[in-house]
Amino acid sequence: MPLRVRRIAVRFALLLALAAVVPLLAYGVISIWSLQRGTRESIVTGNQNVATRAAEEIHRYVVSHTEVLKALAADLQDTGLETWQKDRILKNYVLQFREFREITLFDEPGTMIASSRVGQPRVAIPKDAQVSLDGVLMSPIRVDDDLLPTTAFGIHLMKLNQPAGWLAGEFSLEEMWRMVDQIRIGESGYALVIAPGGDLIAHGNPDKKALVAQTRNMSANPLLGLAGGGNGDHPVAREYPDEEGRTQLGVAASIPTLGWTVVVEQPTDEAFASAKQLQRQLTVAIALALFGMIAAGYVFSRRYFIKPIHALTRATHDVAAEGRLGTRVDIRTADEFAELGESFNTMADRLVELQEDVKRKERQAMFGRVAAGLVHDLAHPVQNIGNSTRLLLRDDVDVETRDMFRKTIERELATLKRFMEDLRHVVKPKPIERFAMEVNGSVQEIVDSMRAEGERHGIAVEAHYTAGPLTIEGDRFALGRVYRNLITNAIQATQPGGRVTIATARAGDRVEVTFADTGTGIPADRLSAIFDDFVTTKSRGLGLGLAISKRIVEQLDGTIDVQSEVGRGTSFTLRFPARDDRSAHAAAS
Fold this sequence. Notes:
Beta-Lactamase, 2 domains, elongated
């Protein structure tokens, strides 16, 4: 089989395969992405739920015991009990609620009144408390002699709205440790509790409980610094490496009333192990399916499609590259390829007719555009001449009005004459005669004659002339046509209230004349063609003005450049070689 046929076979096989491969591939990509996302979200959500429930349990555990102390304060306050009775009540509470190692009643100066402890109390009034739980002060967590986390609660007693002493209790958080130890995620996932300053107060990993005794500071944990991490209603999650370099999936839920944060950590390789295994299996299945479809498509295309495609390719090449319009194909497969071969033969029969028809239509379109432009540009002046002529023949028209009609007729006749000259110069350009001329004077002459036209359209025509003589070699009449055409275009492109500015300048050995407007501007993709014949950006005209203007300027060894920005305006700049000799100045003057 020729090399070209082999390439067609490969491409067609790929085309057939892609018809089924693309949906399968898209489905596979979406499935893998959905699996990754869904599994991750499921695992993260599950860990977050664990952290949230743990935070709720710890909060309930601490708050319930503050309620116990508040109930005890209510029993002791304003009851008139004797000191020994208060002492007995405190001891009973300690026996009943074993998390309280000691409860002591102080007067306002801080002297012990009664205590559950025999001898001097160990607990102190928690005046350095960082947390207040509905009136119960809670001191920072510390580790006692048994290496267990301990805190102190304190309630300020009041009598007749006056301070009447303190009730303080030493509270052991050993039960909280047991709660944290029971939280396990997989084989290696544990929970830890971090105090407001970053101190570790509980860790579920037995190998890391010593960190609590060392008062390890966990401020470097990235979960503590995340925005929103302090809001218990919105747990946060993040992946980060631990001290051993193992990547952990961490979730955090805070206990706002205590300022504590419950963090649940699980190694990511363990957390996402099942998801990665499913992903690998799905990837292998999709790859096998893709390979099978591509192979089947390749075999099928070689057997049923290559021959008719090759015949059509050879015939198309003969017609397109060799120009042999008599080439025909003979495909007898009794399917769509046979219909395609018949269509090709019909197409070849019609090619000559279509070529002639296209040429004829191109000529008609060109002539039609020229005719339409002629009618469009001639209709308005002819109509003005006709109307003015009819009005001029009326007897009731005064002398001043007759003079106005006469000027209108002359102006429109001059317009028609310029139009005819533009058409004649397209075919046979008029020779340019060069004379020394002063630019400021030639520009001023045209500007003064065009101001009335600008005022009629509500546009200000301004001129700025540089000081000193600006002498060039040019044709005053031809350049006048260029100036007039550029000013007319600027007026037509500018909305009422806009401005057209003409300025002369000397730039080195060149004399410049700039025509700028504040009009609609010209799109960037059309700037390169505006000087071509029959190209225009306006709704009327043949598009000859700028083409003729460019030819005139170039015949005088000058250049014409355009800069434009849509919505801001357009600027045309003419540049001519300057004449500085005295004879030129004298001739120009």
